[in-house]
């Protein structure tokens, strides 16, 4: 209202000087009313209507349209233009489009260029002021960035430094409550969900096991084309096939019936084997195994017994120490004196040599009349005699070594023999050596009917057993009694070829090894007590454990069989360590050792511990392979024997040497 | 580690040098060190002649480079090492080779004569020059051991022990060169393998295969206790006797009462023992490759002080040096005689490889003669001058 009363010049001043806020408010005015102001500003005359802001149609019926400042009527301009004039004016006047009528005065006003521009801007929704930039960047007073200087410089309160007494009291109460156990720490929440295990306590074997163990009943084979009443011709049997089928056993037949062809189903007769087949089916169901057998999975390595290390089983011979050289041909047999001072060896060069064990010195050489097959030193320390076998002769030698008294005593023992009054026919000729033979040490000469291969003494030193291998003959083993110069043939007949014999070290038993078996005879009862099956092709040698309950047998098929007489007649253990045939086996008298010599030139020493406890089986561990002999004529080691007191083993070989391993 | 601080010292006043530590290369060996010492001695006195030295580090002979030795002996290289130097032992010089008719089983020499026992059933007396002087024949079997008893001017008493179970005491007059059997000691029931004369030269002891020891004096004493043959016997002093046996033990006996004083148990057959009064140690050879040293006074009878291992066969003979407390000689079935110094137990000082067959016996006389006899029928003698100056070292 105030604006209307202001002069036009003042209004323009206000329009230009008013800033944004004013214009913002101006937005609410209609463009038409703005035009009213503009008309005022255009007509800068004193003819001013003072009626105010009223609807102008109130003056429609009056000749005047208002009043001026002096209160005089303002008359409406004379409107003498009709429609035609209006049209002509519209056609001819180029400013017609910018001519508007002022309703306050009724005069026509031509709008200036600036006014038209302003109207356009307002119509487009822009700011009236051309120079106003509405997109200027806004500057925040409080920035989001942290400044180094505080916004306020107010010092901190003192209370923020002083512990609060109230809080202290509260905390003290809590601490007391925790101490007294009134407050308990909160349990950690269990995050895992808890479920009830329905099957936790169920034995899996009860039901699952039943499922697992289930064996379905055997199903019958479904009928094929053969069973058809009208089978294709290829399923029908030809005449030959039918004959072959009839020839076969019912179990072997592929088909249990003959396929037959019928013209129609009506012509098929009743099946004759129906009952029979049903019965078999019942049997199948009845006999079918309905349970699965559990197989035990055992590592075979675990079944092997843990053997001690050879290092822990010392002493045993490990190295070759001495070589007894002198024989010119293969040495077939060796024997050590019971004192361990002397060694006797018999060779194919027809000599018997006596050696000092500790120096390998040959102290004596005795010539005999043939290749020496066996030597045996009398095990009785109070008799100094060596039995030597060659060809068909056994000679008892007195080497004259060792104690003089013992040597003379054994000479006397032989010479003190008195001829019995009644002379019986003997199997063997006993003769006393005389002359040069006696000088050499020959004492008694026993002529046998056949070639003697082995001699062995009884532990007491009076009996001497000789082996004369001859297949099937009744005279293969003879036992001589030296003190009475008597010979007996213990066996009426011998089965097989006797290989070697041996006396039991303690009891009156006698071991006879044939090719396959070892027979144990009781000499007092004169009966066979045991027959050991060696499981090998040809036994070559045998040795009895000094305890008397164990026997080892070497065989030509590279095996060494250990028998435990208390256990079984079959070998307790069979060792196959040698590459070639075994020639000789021996036990040590004191140490738990046994050795085997073979054609491969090696001696294998094994630890063979026999326990007094009957429940404990012997412990057999091979401990050492001793090599030294050279192989000549495909023969290696021919004889092995242990030293009676030391853990030393002697071996004689085909290379003419005797070797001592310690 | 390239340099080692070492201080050299010696007990031989002839070769003294200043007692100052030297920095020497750790890789230096005996020859280098010897050169160093010789340089120092030359600098000290002009008339010095080159001498080869041997070096002892903490009582062990230096055989490898110094660094190696100190590493194996666990000697710290940070400190100054004390190295003792002694004049190098010269190799034994072979002197004579005396041929026998048969294997030589035993030898014993004194300052003038050599006595050998042989497998041809005789004992022989030889001069030091290897001339056969006398053949003592009387035994009916191999002579196993011999011993000089004593010498009164021209007549000497000697003992021979034999496989024929007897010991014979002979009197030999060197001027007339006649030998006469004084006694034939019978009593053993086995071959007499060893005989030893006591220090007073009035009685002797014999050990035999029959497991017995006998002291032949009046009265005759018999010691039984061994379970196997006695292989070697010796007198430690006038009252104490020591015997080695095949039953793996060495036993010490009281010669007066006949009681056993101590037993040393080994694991192998003992074949020979020797005792040195200088170092009070027993050396034993057994049926394996080792020479073992024992302390006879030790109550713990299983303890081997030192094992000298270099032989390849049984050690058949062992003998301490009569004048040097560290040296001994051993003979073996591997045909070699070895000269040992106990301060260098890894390797012998010298190998005397003259024999062509088993060595059966060795001896060492007080005037520096080493003798060895063997199965090749030869008796070798070696002159060994263990440096006199070093004898007491």
TrEMBL record, chain A:
Record domain BOP1 N-terminal: where: 59-317
Checking InterPro entries in the record gives: BOP1/Erb1, BOP1_N_dom, WD40/YVTN_repeat-like_dom_sf, WD40_repeat_CS, WD40_repeat_dom_sf, WD40_rpt
Task: Check the record and name the CDD domains matching this protein.
Answer: WD40 (cd00200)
Cite the repeat ranges for WD.
324-365, 630-662
Concerning PROSITE patterns, the annotation shows: WD_REPEATS_1, WD_REPEATS_2, WD_REPEATS_REGION
User: What's a single GO CC term here?
Assistant: preribosome, large subunit precursor
One GO term (biological process): maturation of 5.8S rRNA from tricistronic rRNA transcript (SSU-rRNA, 5.8S rRNA, LSU-rRNA)
Query: One MF term in GO for this entry?
Result: ribonucleoprotein complex binding
Compartments, as annotated in UniProt: Nucleus, Nucleolus; Nucleus, Nucleoplasm
Q: Name one Pfam family in it.
A: WD40
Keyword terms of this UniProt record = Nucleus, Repeat, Ribosome biogenesis, rRNA processing, WD repeat
Q: Subunit info?
A: Component of the PeBoW complex, composed of BOP1, PES1 and WDR12. The complex is held together by BOP1, which interacts with PES1 via its N-terminal domain and with WDR12 via a high-affinity interaction between the seven-bladed beta-propeller domains of the 2 proteins. The NOP7 complex associates with the 66S pre-ribosome. The PeBoW complex associates with DDX27, BOP1 interacts directly with DDX27.
Under PANTHER family, the record lists: RIBOSOME BIOGENESIS PROTEIN BOP1, RIBOSOME BIOGENESIS PROTEIN BOP1 BLOCK OF PROLIFERATION 1 PROTEIN
Functional description taken from the UniProt entry: Component of the PeBoW complex, which is required for maturation of 28S and 5.8S ribosomal RNAs and formation of the 60S ribosome.
Family per UniProt?
A: Belongs to the WD repeat BOP1/ERB1 family.
Name used for this protein in its record: Ribosome biogenesis protein BOP1
Task: State the organism of origin.
Answer: Cyprinus carpio
UniProtKB/TrEMBL annotation, chain B:
Q: Thylakoid: present as a keyword of the record? A: no
Gene3D superfamilies under this entry? Answer: YVTN repeat-like/Quinoprotein amine dehydrogenase (2.130.10.10)
Supply the alphabetized keyword list: Nucleus, Repeat, Ribosome biogenesis, rRNA processing, WD repeat
* GO cellular-component term (any): PeBoW complex
Molecular function GO labels: ribonucleoprotein complex binding
Concerning InterPro entries, the annotation shows: NLE, WD40/YVTN_repeat-like_dom_sf, WD40_PAC1, WD40_repeat_CS, WD40_repeat_dom_sf, WD40_rpt, WDR12/Ytm1
Q: Where on the tree of life does the source sit, at the highest rank?
A: Eukaryota
GO biological process terms, semicolon-separated:
maturation of 5.8S rRNA from tricistronic rRNA transcript (SSU-rRNA, 5.8S rRNA, LSU-rRNA); maturation of LSU-rRNA from tricistronic rRNA transcript (SSU-rRNA, 5.8S rRNA, LSU-rRNA)
Q: How does it assemble?
A: Component of the PeBoW complex, composed of BOP1, PES1 and WDR12. Within the PeBoW complex BOP1 interacts directly with PES1 and WDR12. The PeBoW complex also associates with the 66S pre-ribosome.
Family of this protein: Belongs to the WD repeat WDR12/YTM1 family.
According to its UniProt entry, the function of this protein is described as: Component of the PeBoW complex, which is required for maturation of 28S and 5.8S ribosomal RNAs and formation of the 60S ribosome.
Quote the HAMAP family the UniProt record gives.
Answer: WDR12
- Name of the protein described by the UniProt record: Ribosome biogenesis protein WDR12
Q: Which organism is it from?
A: Cyprinus carpio (Common carp)
């Amino acid at each position: 209202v105030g604006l209307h009363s202001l002069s036009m010049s003042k209004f323009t001043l206000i329009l230009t000087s008013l800033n944004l806020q004013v214009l913002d408010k101006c937005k609410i005015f209609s463009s038409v009313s703005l035009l009213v102001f503009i008309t005022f500003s255009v007509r800068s005359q004193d003819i001013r209507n003072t009626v105010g802001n009223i609807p102008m149609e109130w003056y429609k019926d009056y000749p005047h349209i208002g009043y001026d400042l002096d209160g005089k009527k303002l008359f409406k301009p004379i409107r003498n233009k009709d429609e035609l004039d209006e049209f002509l004016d519209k056609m001819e006047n180029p400013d017609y489009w910018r001519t508007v009528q002022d309703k306050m005065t009724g005069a026509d006003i031509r709008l200036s260029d600036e006014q038209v521009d302003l109207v356009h801007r307002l119509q487009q929704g822009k700011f009236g002021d051309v120079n106003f930039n509405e997109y200027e960047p806004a500057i925040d007073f409080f920035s989001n960035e942290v400044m180094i200087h505080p916004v306020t410089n107010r010092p901190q309160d003192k209370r923020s430094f002083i512990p609060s007494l109230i809080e202290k009291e509260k905390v003290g109460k809590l601490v007391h409550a925790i101490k007294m156990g009134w407050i308990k720490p909160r349990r950690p929440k269990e995050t895992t969900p808890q479920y009830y295990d329905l099957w936790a306590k169920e034995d899996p074997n009860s039901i699952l096991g039943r499922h697992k163990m289930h064996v379905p009943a055997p199903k019958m084979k479904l009928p094929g084309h053969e069973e058809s009443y009208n089978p294709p011709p290829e399923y029908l049997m030809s005449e030959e096939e039918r004959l072959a089928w009839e020839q076969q056993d019912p179990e072997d037949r592929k088909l249990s019936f003959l396929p037959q062809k019928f013209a129609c189903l009506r012509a098929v007769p009743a099946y004759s084997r129906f009952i029979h087949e049903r019965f078999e089916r019942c049997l199948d169901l009845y006999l079918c195994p309905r349970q699965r057998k559990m197989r035990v999975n055992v590592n075979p390595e675990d079944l092997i017994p843990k053997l001690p290390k050879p290092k822990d089983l010392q002493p045993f011979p490990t190295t070759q120490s001495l070589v007894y050289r002198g024989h010119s041909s293969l040495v077939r047999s060796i024997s050590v004196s019971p004192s361990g001072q002397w060694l006797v060896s018999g060779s194919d060069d027809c000599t018997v040599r006596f050696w000092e064990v500790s120096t390998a010195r040959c102290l004596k050489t005795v010539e005999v009349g043939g290749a020496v097959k066996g030597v045996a030193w009398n095990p009785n320390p109070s008799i100094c005699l060596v039995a030597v076998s060659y060809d068909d002769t056994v000679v008892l030698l007195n080497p004259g070594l060792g104690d003089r008294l013992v040597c003379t005593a054994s000479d006397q023992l032989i010479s003190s023999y008195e001829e019995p009054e009644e002379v019986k026919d003997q199997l063997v000729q006993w003769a006393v050596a005389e002359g040069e033979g006696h000088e050499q040490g020959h004492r008694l000469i026993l002529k046998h009917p056949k070639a003697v291969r082995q001699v062995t003494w009884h532990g007491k030193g009076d009996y001497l057993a000789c082996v004369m291998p001859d297949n099937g003959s009744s005279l293969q083993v003879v036992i001589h009694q030296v003190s009475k110069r008597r010979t007996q043939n213990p066996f009426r007949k011998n089965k097989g070829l006797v290989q070697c014999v041996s006396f039991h070290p303690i009891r009156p038993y006698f071991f006879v090894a044939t090719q396959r078996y070892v027979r144990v005879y009781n000499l007092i009862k004169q009966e066979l007590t045991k027959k050991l099956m060696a499981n090998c092709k040809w036994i070559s040698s045998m040795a009895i454990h000094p305890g008397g309950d164990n026997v080892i047998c070497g065989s030509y098929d590279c095996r060494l069989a250990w028998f435990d007489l208390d256990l079984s007649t079959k070998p307790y253990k069979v060792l196959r360590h040698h590459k070639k045939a075994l020639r000789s086996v021996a036990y040590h008298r004191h140490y738990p050792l046994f050795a085997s010599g073979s054609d491969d030139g090696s001696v294998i020493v094994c630890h063979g511990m026999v326990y007094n406890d009957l429940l404990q089986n012997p412990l057999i561990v091979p401990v050492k392979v001793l090599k030294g002999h050279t192989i000549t004529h495909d023969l290696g080691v021919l004889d092995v024997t242990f030293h009676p007191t030391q853990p030393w083993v002697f071996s004689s070989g085909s290379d003419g040497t005797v070797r001592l391993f310690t | 580690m390239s340099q080692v601080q070492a201080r050299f010292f010696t007990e031989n006043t002839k070769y003294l040098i200043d007692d100052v530590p030297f920095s020497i290369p750790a890789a230096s060996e005996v020859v280098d060190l010897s050169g160093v010492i010789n340089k120092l001695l030359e600098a000290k006195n002009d008339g010095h002649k080159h001498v080869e030295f041997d070096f002892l580090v903490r009582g062990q002979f230096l055989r490898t480079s110094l660094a190696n030795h100190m590493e194996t002996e666990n000697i710290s290289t940070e400190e100054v090492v004390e190295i003792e130097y002694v004049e190098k032992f010269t190799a034994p010089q072979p002197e004579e080779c005396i041929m026998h008719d048969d294997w030589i089983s035993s030898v014993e020499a004194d300052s003038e004569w050599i006595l050998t026992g042989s497998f041809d059933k005789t004992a022989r007396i030889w001069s030091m020059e290897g001339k056969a002087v006398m053949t003592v024949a009387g035994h009916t079997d191999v002579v196993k051991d011999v011993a000089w008893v004593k010498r009164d001017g021209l007549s000497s008493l000697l003992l021979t022990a034999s496989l024929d179970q007897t010991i014979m005491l002979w009197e030999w007059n060197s001027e007339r060169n006649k030998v006469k059997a004084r006694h034939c000691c019978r009593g053993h029931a086995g071959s007499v393998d060893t005989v030893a004369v006591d220090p007073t030269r009035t009685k002797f002891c014999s050990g035999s295969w029959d497991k017995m020891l006998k002291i032949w004096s009046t009265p005759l004493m018999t010691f039984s206790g061994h379970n196997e043959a006695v292989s070697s016997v010796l007198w430690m002093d006038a009252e104490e006797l020591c015997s080695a046996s095949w039953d793996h033990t060495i036993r010490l006996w009281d010669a007066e009462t006949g009681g056993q004083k101590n037993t040393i148990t080994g694991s192998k057959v003992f074949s020979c023992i020797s005792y040195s009064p200088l170092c009070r140690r027993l050396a034993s050879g057994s049926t394996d490759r080792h020479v073992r040293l024992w302390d006879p006074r030790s109550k713990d009878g299983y303890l081997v002080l030192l094992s000298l291992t270099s032989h390849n066969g049984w050690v058949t003979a062992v003998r301490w040096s009569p004048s040097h407390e560290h040296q001994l000689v051993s003979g073996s079935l591997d045909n070699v005689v070895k000269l040992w110094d106990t301060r260098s137990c890894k390797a012998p000082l010298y190998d005397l490889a003259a024999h062509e067959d088993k060595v059966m016996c060795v001896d060492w006389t007080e005037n520096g003669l080493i003798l060895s006899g063997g199965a090749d029928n030869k008796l070798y003698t070696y002159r060994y001058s263990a440096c006199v100056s070093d004898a007491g070292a």
